[in-house]
C-alpha cells in the first residue's frame, strides 16, 4: 500500500504541473484566433489576407510537431517544454511589436512562431499518458485530466482579450499579445519542475520498429484517422459556423455566444471522459464521439434557426471531446516505449496538418458550397472512420474468443 502511494505521488505531481501548464499555455490560441483576423484587417492592405495570421499559426503548429518531437527525443520533454514556453513568450512579444510598428509581416511572424509552443502544449496529453506507465485505465484518466486544463484555458484566453485589448490605447490589441507572452512566462516554472520518464531508446533500441512499418499497422491507421476526422471536422465547422450564422441573419453576438457554448462543451466532458473510456473502452467512446459529430451535421442540415446552429455546435464540442480523447488513447496502443516520440509526433502532424488545411480552406469552401454543403460533405468521412472502428473492434473480439 505504501509502495503504491509512493509510486503514485510523482505521477500526481506531474499531472498537476501539466494541468497548470495546459491552463496557461492553452490560453494562447484563443487570443490568436479571436484577434488575429481583426489585427489582420487593421494592418493588411489586402482584404483576402486578413485571416493569414491565424492560418499561419495553425501551419506553424503542424510544422512544429516533428521538430518538437526531435527535441524531446534528444533532450527530454522537460527541456523541450521550457524551450516551448520561451518561444511562446517571444512570439507574443513579436506579435505585439508588429502591431505597435504597424507591420503585418512582423505580426504574422509572431503568430507563426506561436505554433511551436502550441505543439508542445498539445503534447502534454501524451506526457501525462507516459507518466501514468503502461496502465491503460490510468492513461485514459490522465489524458482526460489534461483536457480539464483546456477548459480553464478556454476561460482564461477570452478573459485576457476582454481585459487587455484596449489596455494600450495607442496600439489596440497589442496589450493582449503582450499578455500572451506573460502567460507563457507564467507557465515556465510549472514545466521546469516536471520529472517525466525518458524514452528508453538506448536501452531497447533494437526493439524499435521503423516508422514506415508502424504507420501501416491497422491500429495506427484507425487511431490516426479517428483523430484527424474528429479534430479536423471540429476545427473546420467551428471556423465556418460564425460566418454562416451572420450570413443567415444572426448577430455577431449570437455567433460569439454559440462559439462560447461550443468551447465549453469541448472541455466540460473531460471531467468524466476518462471514466467512460475505462468502463466502455476507447473504441466505443471514440465511436460515440464521431456519431455525435455526425449528428451535429444532421442537425445543422435541418434548419438555419439559432437552435440549429447552437445545438450543432454543442454536439460538435462534446463529440470532439469523446472522439479526440478516445483517439489519443488509441494512439498509446500503437507503439512500444522506444517508438513513442516519433509515433506521437507523426500523429499530431497528421491531425494539426489537417487543421491547418481546414483553417486555410474553410472560408473559401463556405463561399463555394455553402453551410449545407459543408455539413453534407462531412458525413461520409465520419461514416468511413466508424466502419474502420467497427471492423477493428470485431476483429479484436474474435481474437479474444
TrEMBL record:
Keyword Membrane: yes
Domain of life: Bacteria
Record-linked Gene3D superfamilies: MFS general substrate transporter like domains (1.20.1250.20)
UniProt keyword annotations, A-Z: Membrane, Transmembrane, Transmembrane helix
Stored PROSITE patterns: MFS
A GO molecular-function annotation: transmembrane transporter activity
Keyword Membrane: yes
Name of protein: MFS transporter
Amino acid at each position: 500500500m505504501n509502495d503504491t502511494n509512493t509510486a503514485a505521488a510523482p505521477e500526481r505531481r506531474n499531472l498537476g504541473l501539466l494541468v497548470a501548464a495546459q491552463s496557461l499555455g492553452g490560453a494562447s490560441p484563443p487570443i490568436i484566433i479571436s484577434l488575429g483576423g481583426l489585427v489582420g484587417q487593421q494592418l493588411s492592405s489586402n482584404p483576402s489576407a486578413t485571416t493569414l495570421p491565424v492560418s499561419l499559426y495553425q501551419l506553424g503548429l503542424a510544422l512544429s510537431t516533428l521538430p518538437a518531437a526531435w527535441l524531446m527525443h534528444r533532450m527530454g520533454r522537460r527541456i523541450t517544454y521550457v524551450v516551448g514556453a520561451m518561444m511562446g513568450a517571444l512570439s507574443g512579444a513579436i506579435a505585439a511589436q508588429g502591431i505597435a510598428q504597424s507591420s503585418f509581416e512582423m505580426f504574422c511572424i509572431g503568430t507563426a512562431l506561436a505554433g511551436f509552443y502550441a505543439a508542445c502544449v498539445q503534447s502534454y496529453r501524451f506526457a501525462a499518458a507516459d507518466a501514468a506507465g503502461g496502465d491503460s485505465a490510468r492513461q485514459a484518466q490522465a489524458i482526460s485530466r489534461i483536457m480539464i486544463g483546456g477548459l480553464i484555458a478556454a476561460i482564461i484566453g477570452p478573459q485576457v482579450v476582454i481585459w487587455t485589448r484596449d489596455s494600450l490605447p495607442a496600439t489596440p490589441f497589442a496589450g493582449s499579445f503582450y499578455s500572451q507572452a506573460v502567460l507563457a512566462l507564467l507557465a515556465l516554472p510549472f514545466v521546469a519542475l516536471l520529472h517525466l520518464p525518458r524514452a528508453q531508446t538506448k536501452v531497447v533500441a533494437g526493439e524499435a520498429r521503423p516508422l514506415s512499418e508502424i504507420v501501416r499497422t491497422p491500429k495506427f491507421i484507425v487511431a490516426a484517422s479517428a483523430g484527424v476526422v474528429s479534430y479536423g471536422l471540429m476545427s473546420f465547422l467551428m471556423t465556418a459556423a460564425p460566418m454562416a450564422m451572420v450570413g443567415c441573419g444572426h448577430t455577431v453576438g449570437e455567433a460569439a455566444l454559440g462559439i462560447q457554448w461550443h468551447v465549453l462543451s469541448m472541455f466540460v466532458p473531460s471531467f468524466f471522459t476518462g471514466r467512460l473510456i475505462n468502463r466502455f473502452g476507447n473504441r466505443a467512446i471514440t465511436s460515440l464521439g464521431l456519431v455525435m459529430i455526425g449528428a451535429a451535421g444532421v442537425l445543422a442540415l435541418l434548419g438555419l434557426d439559432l437552435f440549429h446552429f447552437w445545438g450543432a455546435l454543442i454536439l460538435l464540442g462534446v463529440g470532439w471531446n469523446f472522439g479526440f480523447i478516445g483517439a489519443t488513447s488509441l494512439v498509446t496502443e500503437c507503439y512500444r516505449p522506444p517508438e513513442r516520440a516519433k509515433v506521437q509526433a507523426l500523429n499530431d502532424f497528421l491531425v494539426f496538418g489537417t487543421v491547418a488545411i481546414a483553417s486555410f480552406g474553410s472560408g473559401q469552401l463556405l463561399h463555394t458550397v455553402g453551410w449545407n454543403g459543408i455539413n453534407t460533405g462531412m458525413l461520409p468521412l465520419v461514416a468511413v472512420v466508424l466502419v474502420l472502428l467497427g471492423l477493428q473492434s470485431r476483429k479484436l473480439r474474435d481474437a479474444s474468443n
